[in-house]
Amino acid sequence: QVHVVETGGDLVQSGGSLRLSCGVSGAPLNYLSIGWFRQAPGKEREGVACFSSGDGSTYYPDSLKGRFTISTNNAKNTVFLMMNNLKPEDTAAYYCAVGATLTTMGEIVCRAGFFDYWGQGTQVTVSS
Question: How far is Cα 103 from Cα 85, in angstroms, rounded to an integer?
Fold first, then answer.
């Protein structure tokens, strides 16, 4: 059984930075697709960063390129999401997810339905 646990959510000021962590157990990261998603109240869950261990491809929405970075530490089976220059509109619950299917990452793949295992979420609040 695969378990996913996110940590690192916090209250930060606009313009600040935050790094989220995602510990994965039950399967090695180098055989998984990995995604970070967020969901604000009243909005759909959206992909903010996705990575494929199959070919090393990544995907970020155009609106987040340059501010968000996904990375992994395979030795610790941990995924990170580095978020810089945070804005109040980044406020949301952030979720880490992994999936067993490996394919090149892109907009169509970096969606909630592609991933099999989810964490409980961690709250990020950005104050203005």
Answer: 30
SS3 state of residue 11: strand
Per residue in 7-61, pLDDT (tens digit) is: 999 999 999 999 999 999 999 999 999 999 999 999 999 999 999 999 999 999 9
Classify the C-alpha dihedral 105-32-2-25 as positive or negative. Answer: negative
Q: Which residues of 64-85 are buried (b: 16+ CB within 10 A; e: fewer)?
A: beebbbbebeeeebbbbbebee
Distance, CA of 117 to CA of 128 (rounded, Å): 33
Q: Are 54 and 30 in contact (CB under 8 A)?
A: no
